[in-house]
Structures are given as C-alpha cells and as structure tokens.
Design brief:
It contains five helices and ten strands; from the N terminus they run αβββββααααβββββ.
Length: 286
C-alpha cells in the first residue's frame, strides 16, 4: 500500500519536472533563434543604401539650324530648329545668320528666364558656347539630349550662377584700396563717380567724362575689357564710390585715367547679373 501511494504521488512531481525542463528548453531555443536577427538589425547598413553626393547636372549640347537671330548687349540669341523641336540658345556675340547650322556646347538650360534688357521672357533657353564651324557635334552629348531625354534641369539660381561665372571676376571692385583723391573731369559732361550715381536717371544714354583711379582691370571678358574706377567720392556703404567701365582699351591698376562713354542703367547680361550704372564702350586716356 505504501509503495502504491508513493508511486501515485511521484508521478505528478515527475511530470512537473519534465514540463519545467521543456519550458527551459523552449525558451532557450527561442533566445538562440532571435540572436541572428538582432545582430542583423544592429549591424552596419549595406553599402548600397548609403546615399552619395548628388551628381552635378550634365552640360547641354544643342545643334540645329538658325530660324531667327538677334543681338542684345554682348550676347547673340538664336532660335534653333533641332531634330527635337525648337529651342532658344544664347552665346557671346557671334557672326551668325538665319539658315546657318550651329552647335552650342557646354550649355546650361534655364527655364522661365527673363531678360530685363530685352523685356522678354523665354520659356526655355540654353546659354552656352558656340562650337567652331565644322566641329563634330558627336564629340559632345547628342543634340539637345538632356532636354529630349527629360533631364531635370538645375535650379534657376544654379544656372544663373553658371552664367555669371563668365564675368564674375569683372563684377565688383576691391573692398579697400586706401584713400583716393582724383580731380573731377572738366567740362559740362564731367562728373564724379558719386554724381554719376546720384544723377543716373537724367544721365541715362548720355555721354559723360569721369576721371578716376583704376582699382581693378579685367581683360577679355565677353569681348570687352572691364575697368573699375574710383575718384574718392561716394562711400562703400551707399555703393556709389565705384563705377564699372567697358572698353577696348587697356589700363593698369593704379593708373589715373579719363574715360568718356555713354551711361547705361541696370544692364542685364543675360545671366541675372545686372549693373545699376555702367559706362559702356568708353574711350580711355591719361
């Protein structure tokens, strides 16, 4: 009888031990099974998922026949008939005519470009460089490929910066050149630099004479030499102490010169780069 009771009591204890062992084994297997997954989640991301810097937009090449052309400032504008349709292009002043076949390379496409000089807005236009006559267009990208292939153009700001780079070196004078005192040009057309800015509306389109010191000289930009002239009048704060002059003549920094030329206002060179006051095509004498 005692043996029977012990046996009946021992069975549930044995079952409990077995159940406990099974639970431990199951939990242990569960932990081992999740370990590789955890390691995978916390490990380094695959190289393919690491984003690199955005690629620079490719330059545009356009080839076609000129349907219409005109000059404005130092640019030649051309409406081109290409295999992909019509598009406007602009290059530095060039001797081209209607009917000519041309290729524009190293171009930057601009959508919704507005020229203040022309008082005109272009839905799309490519600013670039006219390839030499007879140059093979195949050496560059296919004609208008970025446009025809749906290339997403850079922002208008980026494109303006690309174009402005052509003459950015000529755009502004040095910050500080020391004290300058130059006598005002004689005659009724003589003006100081500050007077030129103060009277700019009345002087638009008129010839003036300004004597000043050359503080910066940049040759051969957009077919002209660029001079920054100061005479000691005006201030940096008001930005009326430095006038830009375009000319075919040469000058050296430090020269005191007399320039005579016509006054132009708010000159926009087709790149969103405007000069509030400019003396253009000036004669330069000492």
């Amino acid at each position: 009888m005692i043996t029977k009771r012990e046996t009946s009591k021992g069975d549930p204890l044995k079952s409990r031990r077995i159940a406990l062992v099974l639970v431990v084994l199951v939990l242990g297997c569960g932990k081992k099974g999740t370990a590789p997954s955890a390691a995978k989640e916390t490990g380094p991301a695959p190289a393919a998922t690491v984003a690199g810097p955005p690629a620079a937009p490719p330059s545009v090449t356009v080839a076609g026949t000129i349907e219409e052309t005109f000059g404005a400032s130092d640019y030649t504008y051309m409406r081109l008939k290409t295999k992909d349709g019509e598009i406007w292009a602009a290059v530095t002043k060039a001797d081209v005519r209607k009917g000519d076949s041309v290729t524009v390379v190293n171009g930057a496409r601009m959508d919704g470009f507005e020229s203040k000089t022309l008082n005109r807005k272009f839905d799309r236009i490519v600013f670039g460089v006219l390839a030499p006559e007879g140059a093979a267009a195949a050496t560059s990208a296919p004609a208008a490929a970025p446009v025809a292939a749906g290339h997403a153009p850079a922002t208008q700001t980026d494109l303006r910066q690309q174009m402005a780079a052509q003459h950015a070196a000529a755009a502004s004078g040095p910050a500080d050149v020391g004290k300058i005192e130059v006598k005002k040009a004689e005659g009724t057309d003589g003006r100081t630099v500050a007077e030129l800015f103060a009277q700019k509306s009345a002087l638009k389109g008129k010839e003036v004479a300004v004597r000043g010191k050359v503080v910066k000289f940049t040759p051969g930009v957009m077919g002209k030499n660029w001079i920054h002239l100061r005479d000691g009048s005006g201030t940096r704060e008001k930005k009326d102490d430095d006038v830009t002059v375009t000319t075919d003549a040469a000058a050296a920094v430090g020269d005191v010169v007399l320039v005579r030329g016509k006054v132009s206002l708010d000159r926009d060179f087709g790149a969103g780069y405007a000069y509030p006051v400019l003396i253009e095509n000036a004669n330069v004498t000492k």
